Amino acid sequence: MRYLPDGTQMKTADSHMIEEIGMPSLVLMERAALKTVETMRGFGMDLSRALVVCGSGNNGGDGFAVARLLKEDGEHVEVLFAGKEASLSGECRVQKSIVERMGIKVFTDLPDGEYTVIIDAVFGVGLSRDITGRYCDIIRWMNRQKCRRAAVDIPSGVCARTGKILGTAFQAELTVAMECVKIGCELYPGKNFAGRSIPVPIGIDTALFEAEKDVCVTYDLSDIPHLMPARRADSHKGTYGKVLMITGSKGMAGAAFLSAGAAYAVGAGLVRIYTSGANREALQQMLPEAVVSCYQEYDGDELCSLLEWADIVCIGCGLGTGKISEQILTCTLEHVTVPCIIDADGLNILSRRMELLKNMKAPVILTPHMKEMSRLTGYTVKEIAGKRMEIITQFTEEYPAVCVLKDSRTLVKSSKRHAFLNLAGNPAMAKAGSGDVLAGVITGLAAQGMNAYESASLGVFLHACGGDEARAAKGNYSVLARDLIDGIGRCITKAEEI
Hints:
- Helix 8 packs parallel to helix 9 and helix 17 crosses helix 18 (452-474).
- It is built from 19 helices and 18 strands.
- The protein is an alpha/beta fold and 498 residues long.
- The chain has two domains: 2-208, Rossmann fold, CATH 3.40.50; 223-497, Ribokinase (UDP-N-acetylmuramoyl-L-alanine:D-glutamate ligase), CATH 3.40.1190.20.
- Helix 8 (253-265) links the parallel strand 10 and strand 11 (270-276).
């Protein structure tokens, strides 16, 4: 697990090291510059003729230090000072003075020369206003140059919290992030300007983020072996949970198959599908491992009996939104006493009956995409996209649920827990049925005893990693939802071998 702080959170950690631990700011600046040069070289950048563009703050100080190190390495380097002399921070003033005394060319007008690389150190993580005037002209000029481009900590113009572009932004192919990648560099559209973001250690202690639940976290592939539920030698199918999948209205057998198959793929012991009778034959052929129970009309007694049998319930995939579906969802939410995952049509029905959510007796995981989240909250999709962290936090404080907000960057939030931001996955996964697979993965993990937040976060990550495996096998266009299940299996196998 690693942290994805915003600018304010990172500044707090930085101040902690300087003011409370006693680490001089110039020492951190030197480390930042050393790691920036090292990372650019490792990225294969030609640094033989470099232009460093520096602002007046500490990000600019990092840039001046980078210029000095490149000079010491024998590279030709020049500095475009985009800031204001009167606004120089103390550390930036020191670094600028050293560079000037070393004879490195520092100028304020746009140059006519050609460069192999431009290094952006104009604004750091504290930028909160739109870039205008001379700064805007300089950044647009930087983007027009035909050379490699790297950013120090964050591309100038990207909001470190939201990923919003503040007027204009530097188009980097590499962002060297000090200690932690900033969340704005992973949210779109900021991600499009950050390129590849590589975190580098400079000595800032991130342990204080553990107590700061507003700080986002993410997973890497190396985390999977430590997160997966254990498989004991002396176990049987009952050890790994009895899953009740209430999925698939008439003609929607595929949703039931995908969600149930995904639950099995991540280790669930026994899956029972409760579905329309019209789907029985297809499901028995597609997934003989599952037990299939069917309804022709609403039967509350039968449903309650199945709810008592289950260790975990998933409802909504392909369920439909008609009268029988609404009766089934209402009965389930009123009587379920084990963890319950609500997806797709279940969410659409729930949006009309939000009082059911407040009165539930069991842990709940909701898996809305942006439009479904709009129905649940009353916010527009545009409003959610612009304030997703605030809205999902507000929602999980109001309702006793873990919320999985599905998007190109899926976000998982639970009250009093770090928000999890998924960075894996790819556009090949944008196919019908992908959400059914995700619901099944989360359900299968929860069936094995993982709590709601952990099963949701790991489920999202495994689902996305399965998508990466599927794309590697079938390319960007030919991946189907069923391929994600196979990809998840390959991903778990690789994790077991680590």
